[in-house]
Each structure stands twice: as C-alpha cells, then as structure tokens.
Amino acid sequence: MNGKKFWLCGFLCAALAASGAVVFAQQARVPASPIDAPAKAALATLPWEFGAFFQGGVGVGDRSNFTFTSAGVRLGKVITKPYLPGFLRGQFEYAGELMPYWEAFTPAPHLAEVKYDYQGQTGYVLEPYGGGTYTGFSITPIILRWNFAPSRHFAPWFQGAGGLIYTPHKFPPDILVPHGEPGGTSVFNFTPQGGIGFHYFINSRRSIDFAANAIHISSASLGDRNPGVNASVQFQIGYTWWH
C-alpha cells in the first residue's frame, strides 16, 4: 500500500510540475527576435512595405507567342493581427503597384486567315494583322493579400488583384483598320489576376521577394473587338523595405 501511495504521489507531483511549466511558458512568451526570426518580428508590428520589382512571363494557349516584361514599385500595409486556425492562420494586407514600364512582345504584322459569315455563307479571307512591340504603363490599385504565418525567414502569401494597362496603340494586335475608322481593340485593358509568392527576410526590415501570377488581359469590350489575352503566367522578383 505504501508503495502504491508513493507512486500515486509521484504521479500527481509530475502532473502538477508539467502543468506549471506550460503555464509558465505561456506567461513568459516573448516577441520574436528580429535576429533569430526576422520574418515573425517584422509582421508582428503590422508594418508598411515599400518595394521595387521586375516581372516577366508568357502568354498561354493561343497567346503562347506573346511575352511580357514590366517593372515598378509596390506600397502595402499589413492591416490585421493573425487570424484563423491551423495552416490558414495569417494576416490581411492591402497593397498597390505602379508599373511605369510595361511591354508586350507579339508576332510582327502579318496576314492572317479570318473566318467570315456573310448571308449564310462562311469562309476564310486573308486580313492584315497588327503586331510587334507594345509599350505602355500599368497600375494595380487593388491587391488583397493574405500573408500566412511566417517561419523564421520565410513569409508565404497568396493574393487576388485587379489593375489597368494603357498602351498608346490598341492592344492586343488585331485586324488593322484605316486610321479614324471604327474597329480594332482598345488602348485600355483590365488585368484581373491571382498569384502566390513569398518574402525571404534578410533581417526584420529587408526582404527579397518572389511571386508567380496568373493574369488575364481584357478591354471589357471598350473597343469594337475584345480578343484579349485569356491567360498569361508572369514571374516577379523584387526587394522590399519594411517599416
């Protein structure tokens, strides 16, 4: 009996010690160290971010012969503290991007077969198509980003965004029409998009950034025709200052 009491007493003491250690650890929890865990330390302060980036990619499907490059700056603000459980836990950020350099490289002007339907008859006719290099600028004023809970140096995220592209010449290239006559596409195109990426924090105030975005380009029928670019995949690398 004495032996049983001894083991029972030992078990209760061990349980009390363990529960006390858990309580003490919770009470003694300290903020992440900017040196040991710069990503956690940076996002814990609900910071602003300002960065520069370069982006490039290709069209998909019937636009696989299109390539894109752009460069610009980003401004964002982490708005919320961490929310949601498990792997969804993270923080909401609102951001925007300005790209004073935006360029699309398309096939050179050429003749292309175009299907027609006239008085019940269908066929194909060769029409002059535009093409070449299109230069403009782009703005993405709406970026809704979810920053997942960071590790020591990595802070992954996903986002949805919407923007606008302006080019002096109607984009994408289409059937050429005489100047001043209706037809063609539009100098304004919208860019709904979604993407994933991550920040690699060098320290709590600096990060290198990588992203992959799927971008749709469409004039929303602002022009007489709206062939658009149904999908493009574009990759981004950048550098960000956090404050």
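(ticket continues) Second input and output from the same batch:
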Amino acid sequence: MKKSKSSALLFILILALSFPIYSDEGMWLFNMPPTSYLKTKYNFTLTPEWLEHVQLSSVRFGGASASFVSPDGLVLTNHHVGQGAIQNLSTREKDLMKTGFYARTRQEELKCPGLELRVLQGIEDVTSQILSAEKPDMTPSQASEAKEKVIAALEKEYSEKTGLKCSIVNLYSGGMYHLYKYKAYTDVRLVFAVEYATAFFGGDPDNFTYPRYDLDVSIFRVYENDKPLQTPHYLKWSTKGLKEGELVFCSGNPGSTGRLLTMSQLEFLRDVSYPFTIANYKRRQALLHDYSKRGAEEARIALRNLFGIENSLKATVGYQSGLLDEKLMAKKAKEEKELREAFQKNPELEKEFGKAWDELAEAQKKYAAFFKPLVFFERAQGFNTVYFGVARNLVRLALEKGKPNAERLREFRDTNLASIQRFLLSPSPISDEFEIVKLTDSLAQLKEELGDRIETKWILGSRSPEEVAKELISGTKLKDYEIRKKYIEGKLEDIYQSDDTMIKLALLIDPVSRGLRAKYESEVESVENKNGALIARALFKLKGTSIPPDATSTLRLSFGVVKSYVENGKKIPFETTFAGLYEKSKKFDNKPPYELPPSFVSKKSALSLNAPLNFVATCDSIGGNSGSPVVNRKGEFVGVLFDGNIQSLPTRFVYTDEISRSVMVHSQGIIEALLKVYDAKPLVDEILGKS
C-alpha cells in the first residue's frame, strides 16, 4: 500500500489528534511493551529479563489469571477464580465453599479433575504468513476462510514441532497475528481456600465497589509426573507495605475491551446486545434466587451459577452505563468524524479506508436481524443445562473429527481436542432437579422469543416447557462418564443411532445452529475483521506500538500507581484494613452478606487490625484480570487483583484514571490471615521462602 509522503504525514497528524493515549492506559503485549514511556515517566527500565521472569511466573487459570508464588509449583489466584474447582470438590456433607480448606501436608492436597492451567512460553509474529493468504479480489468471507486455513495449519505445525499448545491470536482487529505457545498442566491440586463469606464479604451489594474488605484468595499446586512442579520462575513475596504513588504492574489475561470499535459497533452493543444480555442475566438471577429458597442444599447448588450471573450482570450494566453516557459517546463520535472527514479530503486515503466504516455499519444491521436466533440456538441460550453442553460437544466431536483439520469448527481443531475430551471426562456434580429447573426456564424463554420458528415447534410441540425439560433430563444417560467415553471413542454412526434424548436434541438443532454460525462468520465477523483491520492496521503502522491492541484473553502487562481518589467530595483511601472489616460487619449486625465466619470471629484478638487488607491502583484492567498478580519494581508480589470499582467499568471503551481503580488483596493481608486466622505457618514459610 503505497502512499505519498504528504498523505502519510497528514494521516499521522490525524491519528495523533484523534487517538490520544490517556495517562497510564494500556494492556500491553509482553513482546511490545511501553519501554520508553515507563523510562520517561517513572524512570523505570523494563529489561528483557524482568519481562521474561514475570511472563513465566504468570499463569492462565481458565478464563482468568494466577501466578506461581513458590519454586514448588504453588499457584495463587482469587477464590472466585478457583470457585468451580472448589465446588466440584464439595458435597452436601462437606461444603468447602462454606468451611474453607487447608491441606496441612502435601498428601492432603486435593486433585481437581478437569482443571488445566497454562503458562505462556513464547510469542511469535506470524502476521505476514496469514495476511499473505488474503488476495485483493476476495470477498470478506473468502478472505476470512483463506486466513483460517493458514491459521489452522500453523497452529498444528507449531504444536507438533514444539510439543506445546499453540494458538494464534488476532490483534488490532486483524492487523496483526501472533502465535502464543503454552505449556499446559493438568495435575492441579487444591491447597488452600478461604470461606466463601470471607472471599466475597459484602456480597453482590459491595461487588464493583470500594472500599472493600475481601480476602478473595485460593491457592493450588501444580504437579508434574506426580511430583510438585519445580519452577525457577515464581514471584517472590514482598513483606513491605505500599506507599501512595508507588508504581505497580499487573500481569494477567484481560478478556476483551472495545476501545478500537467504531460507532456502529458501539451502538450495536448499546441498542441490541447489552439490553438483551442484561435482561437475560436478571431472569437467570431471579430463577436462581427462587431455587435457593427451597432449602440449604438447593442454595449450595445454585451458588455455583449465582456468583457468575450476578457478577456478569453488574459488569454489563457498568459497560452499558458508559455507552449511555452522552459525553463519552459524543467524544467517540467526534474522533471518528474527524478521522473520516480527513480521509474524504485525501483521494488516496479515501480509496483505501473510506468504505470501512460504512461496511462495518451495514454488518451491524445484518447482525441485529438474526442476533436472537444465533444466541438461542448456536450459543445455546435456549438449552440451559450442562447436559446439552455435553451432548453438543459429543455430537460435534463426532462430526468434526472426520474432516481435514483446517475445515473443522475452530474449537475442534487438533490443538484443542485434548482439552475438550478432558472436559467431557472430568467428573463434576450434577443435580437433575436443578437441571430441570434451568432447562424449563430457558425453553420457556425460547418459546417467548422465537415461538414462531419451526425448530421451537418441533422441540415443544403442544407440551409445556417443564414437560419437555423433564423428558429430556430423564432420558439422558450423559451423567455416566463411561457412556461419554464410549461416544468419544466410537463412530459417527453411534451418535446417529443413539436414543439418548440430549444427543437427539443436539442433532436436531445442529443444522440450524451451524447455519446461523456460518451466517455470522460470513456477514459479520469476516466484515469486522477485514474493515476493522484496515482502520486498526493503519493506526498501528503509523502510530507504532504507542497504542496497544484491545484485550484478547491473552497475557498482557498493565501498570499504574497506588492512588487514593475523591468521590462525591470525599477522599477514598488507597488501602483498607482488618479493622475496617470488623467495623463494617458490626454495622450490619454481622448478617449476610456482611457475616464473618467463625474463624474470623474467634481470631479477632490475634490479628493486627491495622494490617492492610485491600488496596487500589490505577492499573488498567477488565474481566479476565481476576487473579492477576500485582508486582512492584523489583517484580515482587504485592497483591492479587480481584475487582475494579464501579467507575472502572466504562473504561472498557474509554480509559480514565481520575477515579477508576483496580482493587487488589494486599500481600501483607494474605500473610496476616494465613498465620493468625488459619494457622497455616508451613504454607506461609513456603511462600516467604523460609522452608
């Protein structure tokens, strides 16, 4: 793409005006860090050795984050990140969510079936290989298909060559592609977990607020060949306090941001996606609360889903608040308008980039027309039961594994098959009564929203959603892991000839689901990739690495300072203490969700009440950063990120550090509680390097 010097200079000027970087904004790639900025503003030299050590000490924990904190494979994350594993190990008789857990010896550590942790070993730029597959005369759909074939081939090649799990990440909306190489660990054991009441003190009312008083921590250990993993890369613990203005870094896997989205994409989220999502979360929340009222055991079962639903609901409402903010949207619109007007004044730029926004806007209109069918069928909103998730994976596994790797659905390519099979064969408790309740409600919602569709009529006929749900749940044998194994190891004919009700349901809706998915990929996703890449590629090429790509659920480095702020005329301190925890519990008469567990009630006199418990910093973060280690200049562990305040949620689209803050559990607070509340001195000795 050749441009005149004047065009390039004009475009650079436009971008400088339209896309400023605000303060310490950015979730930066480890192979493209803001080295100069950190040196200029903070006099901090970010060395390759520092980066490599933090990268190899960081852990991907499902869709969130964690870190190694000892040379013997000890991994620390949030309690809410490890919650699924903790719940899987709980029973009616022994509820680890309620009582907490501490393995005083390594023999007492509990294996967590199905849990896989990953550590990023390296990153390789494969942009040229992938973009070379796209030819000038291709439609967006054809270009996307051509690039997907190259991506599948590269992932398979590198995985076989390295023995690592390799996946290619789309950056800058398709302007850049990096191949990430992960070492996966599947023998993971629970070492320590606080009580749920301690981890989530304040419950949903305090979620996404500050000041906070949560000890949101759980600790696991990675094993290799049935022995604790020996790793030279782990974060040494800081035993010193933090000061106002101190520079800190956050290393984690932020989920997604939308700072490079166009106005039409933002408007789709505001007008279509978010309203539906919020209403759906509220519906699920009400359902779970009603089920919890049936009894203590039902409440325990519902908690598995309730935390995630309420957390996602509050987060999405916060994201939507940003898009409903007239000033924020006016600012985004002004930036886009100035950029487009500048293009229109330059024939070369207009020819290359001018249609990008219009094509993206048209794609959003098409997306809105089939958004609900896509969500209810392909994304399984209408079939809310774990059994359907299992059945669909079994059906698609059988259908896909006979195809060439590059022609499969992405999630069933060779590099992902082991993880899918591990998921299908990992035991987890299932309550059929609870599954019937969930499925009944989602089928009722399917009927309300898409009752005229022939597929809905096939599924429900003249029967009630509850009748159909009971029939589907009672007629499946997929709770039996041996039966799942037979389907995995069997042939496609075994799936077709199955009389299992969930298998039959998955087969019934697979054609319409695939059709909707193909429509989305050809009419929306490929158009977004092509045109988003045009805008973002130009931005990247002319601004270099001064603008980081949007978050992609991969390892990023952000930074900021420990900093108090002013809200409604009141100064909010940068850290809270154990004294504040007890004061708040007393204020609410020690009643849920401010009820302290017996361990904290009985050990109050032993604690140093002025010890810091939580703190805030201006580090840029988003969902997925939960469990991220926060380190100081020396790379020492000073805390673990577990939340953001409510003002941080709109930064999904526009960053500001005026009052937006990430919220962390303080390293000193963790040690204080481990020693004086949980009597876990051997664990503390290991963390502090004394054992």
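Agent notes: The two ends are 60 Å apart (CA to CA). The chain has 26 helices and 21 strands. Closing as not reproducible unless the customer responds.
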